[in-house]
Specification:
Elements (H helix, E strand, L loop, with lengths): L6 H8 L4 E6 L5 H13 L7 E6 L2 H6 L1 H11 L8 E2 L4 E4 L2 E7 L3 H4 L4 E6 L7 H8 L2 E9 L7 H6 L5 E6 L9 H8 L1 H4 L1 H8 L14 E3 L7 E8 L7 E9 L2 E10 L4 H10 L7 E3 L4 H9 L4 E3 L6 H10 L2 E5 L3 H9 L2 E3 L5 E5 L5 H15 L10
Parallel strand pairs: 1-7, 1-8, 2-5, 2-6, 6-7, 9-15, 10-13, 12-15, 13-14
Antiparallel strand pairs: 3-4, 4-5, 10-11, 11-12, 16-17
Helix pairs in contact: 1-2, 2-4, 13-15
Length: 384
């Protein structure tokens, strides 16, 4: 069977080390080629092996490496419904077991041993997570990630090991990208030097232009007071986001409830019901009046956020008055906070204009925080 792969597959096929680290820019083919190797380079050459594919949270796992795994099987006409245990997130392939686990499933993380471990977006994990996983891995561990965080245990505790390989790949290593995608990535050169370094060149970035410094917490403290929900709409290219906002004195606590593309207003209403938002206040992007009106008619307590000239910077200033805490399971929000930054000119001088990227959850927070504390008049949407 002829398969299409790139150098990530070759790295793994030629590796003699216990650990392989694949650091790469966006669209370098890391995830796809690691999965290809796990299937064709390992599973089809062995019997009775357990291969674990892991990510921080189950929703992110399901939307990324799990989906890609089954897409590959179907692409090569290898998928068998009878071999797929959907309730346990497992698949049997040629006498081997593929299991999909996340860090929000502690019973699986601390469960049985495995032969091969693949951690997708490994820089989402903490060192304690890594230890629990590697202690139960007998043969091989594979990690991949975009290098957005310059201070991480991967660089201090894993990369220096003598039993670890380390590779960097970029979009140029993915020969199957369309010209349009390549052009989109290369536009980063003119948008932001740091983003280009990270997502274009696959290198560790660092910048003094980072807008927020956040703290992570395990959960919302019971004594914190609920303020509101903030929502930013998306569909094809951008996700719809929903953030729960709590306050305790000068501390603001944030929890990501929704970060998903392709949602209709009916889908959003159902998600709100699932998260038991019901009649609690939601402040949403006023640039989507039709969506707000439809959700309002569906019985949701949703209001248009106050926007206007300078509202982005005003909202940022208000957020900066507080110490921000983000729950550890809010992986998309944490990633955005780590990448949301001010524009810089060609000389590296920081401008008072945020880069219009990595702002979906942060926009939602601005809407909920500013509009709750400022208490503007919402007309027909006002609670009487």
């Amino acid at each position: 069977m002829k398969i299409q792969t790139n150098k990530v597959f070759e790295h793994l096929d030629n590796s003699t080390k216990r650990i392989t680290i694949e650091q790469g820019g966006t669209r370098s083919g890391k995830t796809y080629n690691i999965l290809m190797w796990l299937i064709f380079g390992y599973a089809l050459k062995n019997k009775g092996k357990t291969i674990t594919i892991c990510r921080k949270t189950y929703p992110s796992l399901r939307a990324s490496s799990m989906r890609d795994f089954f897409d590959i099987l179907k692409e090569y006409d290898m998928y068998e419904e009878a071999d797929h245990n959907k309730s346990n997130s497992e698949y049997k392939l040629e006498g081997n077991l593929f299991e999909f686990i996340s860090l929000d499933q502690p019973q699986k993380v601390r469960g049985r041993k495995r032969d091969v471990l693949y951690i997708n977006e490994a820089n989402e994990l903490y060192f304690e997570d890594w230890q629990q996983l590697i202690f139960r891995t007998t043969e091989k561990a594979i990690l991949d990630y975009n290098p957005s965080d310059e201070f991480h245990f991967i660089y201090d505790k894993i990369k220096p090991r003598d039993d670890a390989d380390f590779y960097i790949t970029t979009y140029k290593d993915n020969l199957f990208l369309s010209k349009e995608i390549v052009a989109e990535i290369e536009r980063l050169k003119n948008i932001d030097e740091n983003y280009w370094k990270i997502y274009g060149q696959g290198q560790i970035g660092s910048s003094q232009a980072l807008i927020f410094r956040i703290n992570e917490c395990n959960s919302i403290p019971p004594e914190a007071k609920f303020l509101s929900y903030g929502m930013d709409f998306g569909f094809t290219n951008d996700p719809t986001t929903l953030i729960a906002i709590y306050q305790q004195g000068d501390n603001i606590y944030l929890k990501e409830l929704l970060f998903e593309k392709g949602l209709t207003n009916s889908d959003i209403s159902n998600k709100l019901k699932f998260h038991e938002v019901e009649r609690k206040e939601i402040f949403a992007d006023s640039a989507e009046p039709k969506s707000i009106e439809e959700l309002y008619r569906m019985g949701r307590n949703i209001k248009p956020a106050t926007k206007g000239q300078g509202s982005v910077n005003i909202g940022i200033d208000m957020m900066k008055r507080y110490k921000l805490f983000v729950t550890k399971d809010s992986v998309n929000m944490i990633k955005e906070f780590r990448n949301y930054k001010w524009q810089e000119d060609k000389n590296g001088n920081i401008l008072n204009v945020p880069v219009d990227m990595f702002n979906h959850t942060i926009d939602a927070i601005r809407y909920g925080l500013y509009d709750k504390l400022a208490r503007p008049n919402y007309g027909k949407y006002a609670v009487r």
